[in-house]
Amino acid sequence: MNHYQTIFFILFLLVNIAGVSAATTLIPPGGEVFLGEEGLDLSVALPFPFDAIAFFPPGSSPGYDIPLDIRTVERRGFAVIPSLYLDRTGPWYQWDSRRGAAGSVAVIVREPRVTVRIVQVTTMEDISSGTIPRGTALLMQLDTNIGSVAQRPGYNKNADGILDLLITTPGGGVLSGVETRSGWISLSGVTPEGSLQTVPPHQTGGWNTGARGAGGGYLYASGTYLVQPRLAFNRINENLQSLERTSYIRGASVTLGSDRAKITTSDDQVIRGNAFTVTISGTPSYPVYLWVDAGQKSGSSGDQPPMILFSQEGVYQDTPNGPYTIGSYRPSSYGGTSIRDLVPHEPYGGVKYYARVLPDRDGKRTIEFRTSEQTDDTRYTIRIESQSATGQTISEEASISVVKGYVGIETEKEVFAIGEEVKLSGYNTESCDTYLFITGPNLPSNGARLDRPRQAVRNGVSSSFTVASGDCETWNYRLYTGDLGIDAGTYTIYAVPSPVDRNNLGSVPYQTIPLTLRRPYVSLQTQVTDVARGDSLYLTGRSSGATRSGVAVWIFGKNYFRYDQTSIERDGSFEYKIPGAETNNMVTGQYSVIIQHPMSNGEFDIWPDGPRHLVLGNTPYPGAPIFRIGGSGSLQGPEAANALITALNSPFIDDTYTKYDIRVNSPKITTDVGSLTQVAGTPVVISGTTNLASGSRLLLEITDNRFAPTSKGDSQSSYGYSGTTEIWQGDIDRFFTFTVPTGRLAPGEYRLIIQAVTSDAVTTELLTITAEQIPAIDTTREVNQTGNITSPDDQHGSNVSPSLSPSENISQPEGFVTLPPVSVQPSPISTIPVVEKSEFEFGSSILILLAGVVMGAIIVGIGALIIFRKRGKEEQSDDSAGDDGLDIDHDSNGEVQDDKSH
């Protein structure tokens, strides 16, 4: 604020301060205003000539930078509308709209903030959201930024107010004041004098929560009290209701402890095998005794109550071997019986069924109970008893029902080939371990171990079952059917939460799932039957059953044999590659491919020997020769393939197979005849077909047929181009295309070489590029003596001349000869198309010739015009010296014609 503004502000206060009715509305220059305020007086903060306020982004200079926002405001009725200023908090500068200049800070927009904390008077400990014993003295501590309102001119602390504190009681009533040791004090119209203030004032002793009324009863009932601040100036509280965010106003709560302890359970029902909790509410630091009313439970397996988890904070238990100090407590309503005598003594000496609990500073404590498959599924009562602050005995109880859990089992399908992996999964809410067994044809009737189906399970013996572990909610298990040693058929898999066989399932939940096993298979999915020598061939297929050994690949042809093995993926797919180097050595002709599957045992029963001379098998003894594939007397091609198939079909061989025929051809590249003759000036597209593999590439080389070693003085040019292209699979044939850009090949003959990149396939062709067609230039037109252009095509000698408008048909003075203008038609050279640089160089001689013809025609026309004008002047001179009577005739069109005699 400058010197003149300061003087104006002082004079304004002297004149107007006595008449201020709402002292919190007058804003000094640079004063703070809060979102939601209305009716503010900015006459001092925004003096003449400033008529608006401007907002500058952080880091900018108001004297030089452009404002981010400019708003025209009412000086005596300014409202800080939350939706307009929520994202524009901070300083707003005075702004002169006529000059476009900023002044000093007019106002600072703030978001109001009030946070309430409840503290004890004696320790100043924050006990917000806590529980206190009756009689504790409390203070409401305010952390706020609205204290600057009290610094505004004319503010009266006794008459004005900024903040109200409202206390909602457990019964729903709202208090505007509280009792202190000094008497009742109002919580309305509070004026914060700083950023941190306590209410009621500390010298009053604070809120007396143990105050009694005239009849001797407590004024404040037990329960939770909510303290909520409310802004009370310039309708700010009403206007802030439009904002969704309320983080700027935060209250606090406190619970006044009751004379009655309470117990609640996390749920009314728990599934056996899961945990549950109970929560105790009492007086802080007053112990509570807790136990399970187990009735006549023995504590033996299947007849146990829920147990308290050991080592919980604030929960104290006896040791299993004694002494039983806590267990000796005698509840008042049980006739002197100790709580240890009210619960079973097994297991752990019964100490997990009772405890002594000490509530925390909030008067609460949560205790966890555990159940298992040994817990009886019935209803239980959890009881508590404690002494209140007044010495009274308080008892409470809560009930919980333990029910059987559920077990689930599933897999991705029901039918599997023997040797495949079965992925089992499911859920188990009763226990952390899931026990699996199987029933079916030729298996024990009460169930067999899942991973060893010939071994029967025994009820209650965990080791006789297949156990699937999980996270105590879900489980999974992988079963390899190739190792089971069972036949194809349909079986049933059981999932149970404890080790019980099929004859004892009545006491536990369980679920079953069918499993159908069939014999393995192998199939080929390859669609390509022809392959060119030098190209790779991929054999793809699917297989079921044992995947660990893969499949064997047999290839038979004329004077050719190949044996190999390839692995199978998890999903049953496999792929085998016959590399191009291998097919390049194969002669053209038919080949038989046999894919052998080892079946469920994962072992090949037929195989070739090391030198690849004999085919061996497991029958009639391991390694027995079946037929010869190398050397004298060996079988070739189809005969060898048929011999292998006959051996695989033997009932003593469990391997299966599939057969596939391929044909190896010589590589061939054929060029389309139509693409060997093309026109210059357009892209040259070469196409053709081939039997090479799709996806492989071809190399094309185009060289000028005139290309030869040249001498130093030889100026003849040569052209060419090269590149690669990819082979594509069409509906019938495989094809290729190759494009040479425009202008890269001049007219002439070229040698075209196409060869495969990965094989020795090659073809050579003659490529002819013809000259592009250029429109001919009509050079037969000439200018006649009258100045008109005459075309030889016009046999009547008609004139081609521009017509004159009526305004141009003006009579000339006598003796003046009017010459018709020469009409020059556009030159045909303008129709020559634009060509690439190489084309232009090729036709440069033609262009020079055409330019010369055009320039010559122009020169001839100019000469004829000069001669014609000269002759007219001479004739005019002769006429003036001789006869003055010049005979001038007009034709029917009004044009001037010379006399016949001249």
Strand runs, count: 60
Poorly predicted segments: 3-23, 776-845, 874-902
Report the principal-axis shape.
flat
Output the radius of gyration.
54 Å
User: What profile does the largest beta sheet have?
Assistant: 7 strands, mixed
State the helical fraction.
Answer: under 10%
Structural class: mainly beta
Q: What fraction of residues sit in β-strands?
A: 35-45%
* Mean pLDDT level: 82
Distance between the termini: 105 Å
Oligomer category: single chain
| DSSP summary: helix tally | 7
What does this structure look like?
The protein has 902 residues and is mainly beta. Helix content is 9%, strand content 35%. The chain has seven helices and 60 strands. Strands 28, 30, 31, 32, 33, 35 and 36 form a seven-stranded mixed beta sheet that branches. The protein has a six-stranded mixed beta sheet with strand order 19-27-26-21-24-23, with no helix packed on it. A hairpin with a 5-residue loop joins strand 9 (163-168) and strand 10. It starts with a helix and ends in a 5-residue tail after the last strand. The relative contact order is 0.05. Mean pLDDT is 82; it is low at 3-23, 776-845 and 874-902.
Based on the model shown, name its key terms.
902 residues, mainly beta, six-stranded mixed sheet, 9% helix, flat, disordered N terminus, disordered C terminus
